[in-house]
Design brief:
- This protein is of the alpha+beta class.
- It has a single domain (2-64), classed as Alpha-Beta Plaits.
- The protein has helices at 12-25, 48-57, and strands at residues 2-7, 30-34, 39-43, 61-64.
- The protein has a 4-stranded antiparallel β-sheet with strand order 2-3-1-4, covered by helices on one side.
- A hairpin with a 4-residue loop joins β2 and β3.
- It comes from Ectopseudomonas chengduensis.
Length: 65
């Protein structure tokens, strides 16, 4: 499972936006978002750079955790 520190997430809309952006690349990816900790965990075949690019496209700052 890949884990990322994501800045700027604050609500359910943020969770949906990040989840949908990742699942648009891989429908079966399992995405877990911890709003309080600012963490996103992704289980699937996408590589880290693809996941980070998808999260950045939604307007969030992202770095490996």
């Amino acid at each position: 499972m890949k884990q990322f520190k994501v800045g700027g997430m604050s609500c359910g809309h943020c969770v949906r936006a990040v989840t949908q952006a990742i699942q648009a690349l891989e429908q079966t990816a399992r995405v877990e978002v911890d709003l309080a900790a600012g963490l996103v965990r992704v289980e699937g075949s996408l590589d880290a750079s693809q996941i980070q690019a998808a999260i950045r496209e939604e307007g969030y700052e992202v770095a490996p955790a």
